[in-house]
Design goal:
The complex is a heterodimer of chains A (199) and B (610). Chain A is built from five helices and six strands, in the order αβαββαβββαα. With 199 residues, chain A is α+β, with helices and mostly antiparallel strands. Classes of the chains: A alpha+beta (199), B alpha+beta (610). Chain B: InterPro entries: BAH_sf (IPR043151), Nucleotide-bd_a/b_plait_sf (IPR012677), RBD_domain_sf (IPR035979), RRM_dom (IPR000504).
Chain lengths: 199, 610
């Protein structure tokens, strides 16, 4: 039913429903990584990365992954919500959400939508309001950019902090390992008359 | 783009040339029609090749190519001074997509200024410019010649185009009347030439041209006056209709000319085209002058003439011009202030002047004759099957330079955004990766970032909006939404054809307000995108750089595969910290966007029209 445009749009919407949006992806994640990561849950039909030109540099990759059914989309979103799901690295997990129409590069025109535009006359009372709206648009964009920047900083901080913790842990384990290996632990145990269980 | 385009593209063979081949089983054709465009043997075309960022250009192409490679016609002009080459005119060169004057010998790998008689077995006359009486050049030439004859005083010359500009009201009608089938483009093309004829005629007979004008329409002009009054407050649409009715005999033709397309768009284009040509002409007169300056001078001259008693017609013109402004202010900006002041007080004057003008009948005959003569080439122009669109765009852009203070007067009619006329052409070049095109556009300063778009718009719709708002062709790409994009604001990168066009759009949107549906004034800035780095950094993936002694097995597995983390691991704790950070970020985005949404809503509620 409906015109070809409507049918087009309906089939597109169906495709949107079958698509998962992933973000917080490492730049090393490629299409094949995504495919292998997800084939334990569903058949991946199509993978498209969303290019990023506006956000601050180095923001994580985002991708749209088209699966074979809506049910699988829900499953994957549930899995990633319940367990931290990691791709090509640790410990930052990826995030999955349902895809939205505007995320698609090639989304068709919604049937029946009419666009109009007009140049406002400066004497029009709306002109001033439109000017304010323009101003607010710019302000909102810079607010969003600021939050973005702030978020990146927080990510960096967390990353640095975790890196320190990891290094500390690593050092600790290495030390334990080495004193066990070169007999220091046993010598000390003897010195202090402790019993070290030897396994 | 992602979808496979299944539409079949129209293809028809054209003129048959003969039969050949060993068994006479091959048919040769001289021309064919593909996707609505007629291609003739030795036409210059764009050839698109898979995987190549730029299309090839073939001049006098005769080798075998798949039909799909054909991307469109291309206007190539040879500027070689070779005597065998029909020399192109300045306007022709200006309108060309590409020019050449040398050859490259693929066998010897040498560049040569000499052009042999045959190249790759093709006679050189097919490679030089075609001697084509249908080409606009043929029309422009007489204009120049005429000017040479009559031209003695540059000042007058400059004035006259302007008067012609206004006179075009009638001229246009006239020319349209003659046309059997006036494609918009073609009629647009013809206008400048007509104006030029005017000017050449007028070089000597400035006042008599005016006389001619008035008398030709005798009663018509008298009617024009009340009409122009009406027009000042009426919609331009009305004005067109009115003019139609008053131009009587030509009315039906005009219907064809203007009826099918956006009226104001058409006229605006015609005016700016014309202006560009006028300007280029003035340029050629004065040598290397800056366009703006020249234009200002024109205006000055016009004012002088206005004050002079002799030219009554020029006085009347402003009121008429002002009327035209209703439909085409955008390109007219610079002269506006002047029009205004004249048209305010000018009405009463003009009606009396007309009487004077109509008394000029004695001079009329003189003027009439050259005018007639000139009509012939303009008719030919209409036959020109190949109105080169890109060049048209170029001209338009130049004209836009002339109007820095566009928003003095604004055409505040609501335009419904429909598909722009040649939207389908651009789709041929979609094969070039967007990122590369954006990069080069960024380097050339033709990239603009549009903000405050409806996020639901498609890239094609943005292109249409730009077309309706600025009469500029462009390529646009909506910025795809992500999980942290604003739900209210859509953004798009737009690549204009020239830097001037991009700057003009930004300036216009800065000074004026282009209000889109649902109360969104468009915001633009010169685009400054960030491109992905070669070695992007990513926060959150940690690697122990020395050999992994501890939990060696875990680490290896984790890096090479993807997995769900289990809660018995240090990585799980760390992952939880990331989840927490993500939640916090989500919250702050949500709060920010909610507040922004409220602010916008409050402001939008104040808008009268929505």
């Amino acid at each position: 039913m409906g015109s070809p445009a409507e049918e087009d749009y309906a089939s597109f919407e169906e495709r949107v429903g079958r698509t998962v949006y992933f973000d917080n992806l490492s730049p090393q994640v490629t299409e094949s990584v995504l495919r292998t990561a997800l084939d334990q849950y569903a058949t991946v039909k199509n993978v498209k990365f969303i290019p990023n030109y506006t956000e601050p540099r180095n923001s994580p990759q985002c991708a749209l992954v088209e699966l074979d059914s809506l049910k699988k989309v829900k499953e994957i979103i549930l899995v990633t919500a319940q367990h931290p799901f990691m791709m090509t690295g640790m410990p930052r997990p990826v995030r999955a959400c349902p895809a939205e129409v505007e995320m698609f590069d090639d989304h068709p025109v919604k049937p029946g939508r009419k666009i109009s535009c007009c140049w406002l006359d400066p004497r029009d009372p709306d002109f001033q309001i439109a000017k304010e709206l323009k101003h607010i648009t710019r302000r909102h964009a810079s607010e969003a950019a600021f939050i973005h920047k702030h978020q990146m900083e927080e990510e960096k901080n967390l990353s640095d902090q975790q890196s320190l913790i990891l290094k500390g842990n690593y050092k600790k384990f290495k030390m334990i390992n080495s004193i066990m290996a070169d007999g220091t632990a046993r010598r000390l145990a003897r010195r202090y008359h402790l019993r070290v269980a030897d396994d | 783009m992602g979808e496979v385009e299944e539409e079949t593209i129209e293809f028809n063979w054209g003129k048959k040339r003969g039969v050949g081949g060993k068994k006479k089983d091959v048919q040769f054709y001289e021309s064919f029609t593909y996707d609505g465009v007629e291609y003739i043997l030795f036409d210059s075309v764009y050839l698109y090749k898979e995987g190549e960022p730029e299309p090839y250009i073939g001049v006098g192409l005769a080798n075998v190519n798949p039909l799909e490679a054909l991307a469109g016609k291309c206007n190539v002009i040879c500027i070689s001074k070779d005597h065998r080459n029909p020399q192109p005119l300045d306007d022709e060169v200006q309108m060309a997509d590409f020019v050449f004057y040398r050859t490259f010998d693929v066998a010897h790998r040498t560049i040569s200024d000499k052009i042999d008689d045959t190249i790759a077995g093709i006679h050189v006359k097919f490679i030089f410019n075609k001697i084509d009486p249908q080409k606009p050049a043929g029309v422009l030439k007489p204009g120049f010649d005429e000017k040479g004859v009559s031209g003695n005083d540059t000042a007058i010359k400059k004035v006259v185009p302007l008067s012609g500009q206004k006179d075009r009201d009638c001229v246009t009608v006239k020319s349209d009347g003659k046309y059997v089938d006036s494609l918009v483009k073609e009629s647009v093309d013809s206008k400048p030439s007509l104006v030029k004829q005017k000017c050449s005629v007028g070089g000597k007979l400035a006042s008599s041209v005016d006389g001619q004008e008035t008398t030709k329409s005798n009663g018509r002009l008298e009617k024009t006056i009340p009409q122009s009054k009406v027009k000042e407050n009426a919609e331009s649409k009305d004005s067109v209709i009115k003019r139609k009715s008053l131009s009587g005999q030509f009315a039906s033709r005009k219907d064809v000319g203007f009826g099918e397309t956006d009226k104001s768009g058409d006229r605006q284009q015609s005016i700016s085209d014309e202006k560009a040509i006028l300007r280029s002409k003035v340029d050629s007169n004065l040598g290397e002058c800056e366009g703006r300056k020249v234009f200002v001078r024109e205006v000055e001259v016009e004012q002088e003439v206005q004050s002079s008693h002799e030219n009554c017609r020029l006085e009347e013109k402003p009121s008429k011009k002002a009327k035209m402004d209703d439909s085409c202010k955008v390109s007219y900006g610079e002269t506006n202030s002047m029009h205004k002041c004249v048209s305010d007080g000018g009405e009463s004057k003009t009606s009396s002047q007309i009487e004077v003008a109509t008394n000029n009948k004695s001079k009329l005959k003189l003027a009439m004759e050259p005018y007639r003569k000139e009509e012939v080439p303009s008719k030919k122009m209409k036959l020109d099957e190949n109105p080169s669109k890109p060049s048209n765009g170029k001209l338009r852009k130049e004209s836009s330079l002339d109007s820095p203070n566009v928003d003095i007067k604004v055409d505040s009619r609501i335009m419904e955004v429909t598909r722009r006329p040649d939207a389908d052409k651009s789709r041929w070049f979609r094969g070039i990766p967007w990122e590369e095109r954006m990069k080069s556009a960024h380097d050339q300063g033709t990239l603009v970032l549009l903000q405050n778009l409806d996020p639901a718009l498609t890239s094609a719709e943005v292109e249409d909006i730009v077309w309706h708002g600025f009469k500029e062709n462009c390529t646009a790409k909506m910025v795809q939404r992500t999980a942290f994009s604003s739900p209210y604001y859509g953004q798009a990168y737009v690549i204009f054809k020239t830097r001037e066009a991009a700057e003009m759009a930004v300036r216009k949107l800065d000074q004026g307000c282009l209000l889109l549906s649902n109360g969104r004034p468009l915001v633009a800035s010169i685009g400054n995108p960030c491109f992905p780095e070669k070695k992007p950094t990513f926060y959150g993936h940690l690697v122990v750089d020395q050999h992994r002694v501890q939990s060696q097995r875990d680490m290896k597995d984790a890096v090479s595969t993807s997995h769900c983390s289990q809660p018995n691991n240090i990585e799980y704790d760390m992952a939880m910290e990331w989840c927490l950070l993500q939640e916090r970020a989500d919250c702050s985005w949500k709060m920010l966007y909610r507040r922004q949404g409220e602010e916008v809503k409050k402001l939008k509620a104040k808008l009268k029209s929505k």
